[in-house]
Amino acid sequence: MKKILLIEDEEPIRRVLIRILEEESKDYEITQCEDGKLGLTTLSKEDFDLVLCDIKMPKMDGVEVLQKARENGINVPFIMLTGHGNVSTAVEAMKSGAYDFISKPPDLNRLLTAVRNALQIKNLVLENKNLKKRIAKRYEMVGDSPQINEIHNLIEKVAPTEARVLITGENGTGKELVAHHLHQKSNRTGAPFVEVNCAAIPADLIESELFGHVKGSFTSAVKDRPGKFEIANGGTIFLDEVADMSLAAQAKVLRALQENKIQRVGGEKDIKVNVRVIAATNKDLNNEIHKGKFREDLYHRLAVILIKVPSLKDRKVDIPILVDYFTNSLMNEQGMDRKTFSEGAITQLMNYPWTGNIRELKNVVERLMILGSNPVTVDDIQQFAAKSKL
Description:
The chain has helices at about 10-25, 35-45, 60-70, 85-95, 110-140, 145-160, 175-185, 205-210, 230, 245-260, 285-290, 295-300, 320-335, 345-350, 355-370, 380-385, and strands spanning about 1-5, 30-35, 50-55, 80, 100-105, 165-170, 195, 235-240, 260, 270, 275-280, 305-310. It is of the alpha/beta class. The protein has 3 domains: about 1-135, Response regulator (Rossmann fold, 3-Layer(aba) Sandwich), CATH 3.40.50; about 140-310, 3-Layer(aba) Sandwich (Rossmann fold); about 315-390, Helicase, Ruva Protein, domain 3. The protein has a 5-stranded parallel β-sheet with strand order 2-1-3-4-5, sandwiched between helices. The chain has a 5-stranded parallel β-sheet with strand order 7-8-11-6-12. α4 (about 85-95) links the parallel β4 and β5.
């Protein structure tokens, strides 16, 4: 059922609108209020999918109802109705966050189209919120060790700034989680977050991937194509495994950081970009600089803030928490039956060096959830986690 709140002071108009809506769909559940003050009170007590609100009403006009609803965090779509409509009133309503503005008596097709579209927008907003929750859950940083708490504190301080961040740590430690948290807690959170795995892109394609290309610049360039820096404009670009980038690409990234502009491969036009750069690597960049494989000037541009993500063997106190987290995730995402881990099993997991870090632990937990007994025992770990050399 779609719940619609009708706020209208004229009873005959309420009666007509209710009949029209009920004939349109049996899925519409309509609540009516005869003035703005009562409408706002009703809005604060119940959840609605749509509000049809008159503008000229006693006690509180429709624009004020809309404004107060937004101030109270009520983001339901409003369609404003008025028999005294003019351009300035419409502009005021739209600036206050109204979805649409319809004059009375309303055109039937215009009204029903606006209602259908507004309800669809409501569904899209809910889907977007749920998607963001799922994404946030996916990139959750789990643990309560001093090292993880220190990273959380650092993220809180650094995220709201425009400072570039270089994240270091072994493979599988969760460097991408830190990058996502920096973006989510930044002032750019509503803008794009674009990831580039520099190690996975061939050296001859990395410049095109980052900066785009113009048609005809090379054999397979059949049309103009924007690069990741353009796509990330206004948001954040995450250069994962940045040490694997070619020296030629490094020079162009350095220019982009210095001048806030890029050139597509084969192009001559400068394109302005406004991106925050977060980089990550599992290599010792000072050693790479000494070998001549990484530009020292780029390092200093990227490493305004350094965040080192600890290996799992350095935060073993988090292993029981991570095991519980992965167990619950597998239950919720894959419908697996719940299993617990015996105290001995947890102890054995905590004593393992975890060369593959959190990524390896997650794989082991999934294998034990599928193949192990309930509760998971030391014998299960020795039998089914052999591939991880436990």
